[in-house]
Amino acid sequence: MADSAGQEEQMAAKEITIAVIGDVHNSWDAQDERALRRLGVDLVLLVGDFGNESVGVVRAIAALSLPKAVILGNHDAWYTATDWGRSKCPYDQNQEDRVQQQLDLLGAAHVGYGKLDLPSLGLTVVGGRPFSWGGSTWKSGEFYQQRFGVGSFRESMDRIVEMAKTAAHETVIFIGHCGPSGLGVEPEDPCGRDWQPVGGDHGDPDFEGAIARTRKFGKNIPLVAFGHMHHQLRHTKTKLRRPTHVDAAGTLYLNAASVPRIIRTEDDCLRNVSLVTLRNGEVTQASLVWLNEDLAIKSKQVFYQQPLAASLLDLEDSEEIMEESGVCSSCQNI
What's the rounded Cα separation, in Å, for the pair 286 and 275? Predict the structure, then answer.
């Protein structure tokens, strides 16, 4: 036990670079693994919405040879989870089950209602409710009952907590498709409702409850990563969604849904990745980087950094980079 604890302390002290990839929506190609390797990431967290049950995209992501944890989003069950979706389904659901195909392709990498222990990094990734649409109304009840035996937010929260209790490591990172409730009610907040009627918390209440309960039994939770609520807002084009939130316990909540994540222009191809640096069980920096066609960093926007003085300095540097590259207007306000 002493040796195990010592190894865990050594892993915690190691600086870890984590890539968080938000809503893909079919924007994934062969260059993405090369880009992630160029960035030197230790772990890739993919938070769903790969396409409308896009088995081909999920197959490519499943083939990613870097350590990864994945959770599927509402678009990944677009034609299966609701009556409306089934009525629009372009394939014969009596002949194939594309939701199950995606789950089978991802295997243990899919952590929705599950977890992935990563001994080499000294942490465990725990997944929230897969296929989430967000909000305080229990949706797709028949789908969740048939697929997972879950019939309410309470049962969903219990399922997530069961997995967190079995985490092999003291440091736990949570990922969800939609983020938890409790991060604000303004439309610009990480899970704020930005469609009519504007305003309100559209986060997942079961996810919020599971995080709180996990913290009570002593786990360190430095990061909660998710997507679903796109950075570009529906009700205004004058500003973007606030991508981060830090709670009283010091947990960083990161919304990585910068959409579209790949932008092709006449003379370049730009792709974005959110990067999180973890050291001593704490997040030291979170940023959004855009890479060009040569996979060099075109811009870096720092969303969070410890301490505050360093944060202010890096934000000034970030603004200079964005202005010089022109990415601020071409990427952030499409």
Answer: 6
Residue 13 confidence (pLDDT): 67
Closest residue by Cα to residue 109 from 60, 51, 170: 60
Degrees to nearest 5, angle at CA 125 with 122 and 127: 170
User: Cβ neighbours of residue 255 under 8 Å, at least 6 residues apart?
Assistant: 22, 179, 190, 191, 226, 227, 228, 229, 231, 241, 243, 244
Tokens of 289: 């980087």
The reply to whether omega before 180 is within 30° of 0 (cis) is no
Residue 135 has phi, psi (to 5 degrees) of: 100, 170
CA angle at 229 for the pair 224 and 235, rounded to the nearest 5°: 145
Confidence class for position 263, pLDDT limits 50, 70, 90: very high
Dihedral over Cα of 59, 64, 69, 75: its sign: negative
Show contacts of 198-202: CB within 8 Å, 24+ apart: 198/235, 201/136, 202/134, 202/135, 202/178, 202/229
For 10, counting Cβ atoms within 10 Å of its Cβ (0-12 exposed, 13-18 middle, 19+ buried), the class is exposed
Give the mean model confidence (pLDDT) for residues 72-93: 98
pTM of the model: 0.91
Where are the strands (E) in 227-328, listed by range?
Answer: 244-246, 252-255, 262-264, 269-279, 282-291, 297-305
The conformation of residue 200, written as its DSSP 8-state character, comes to S
| Element holding 31 (H helix, E strand) | helix 31-39
What's the pLDDT score for residue 318? 52
Read off the pLDDT of residues 35-73 as tens digits, 9 standing for 90 and up. Answer: 999 999 999 999 999 999 999 999 999 999 999 999 999
The answer to whether the CB of 299 falls within 8 A of the CB of 37 is no
What is the domain class of 2-332 according to CATH? Answer: alpha beta
- DSSP per position, 213-248: HHHHTT-EEEEEEE-SS-SB-SS-SSSB---EEE-T
* DSSP class of 91: S
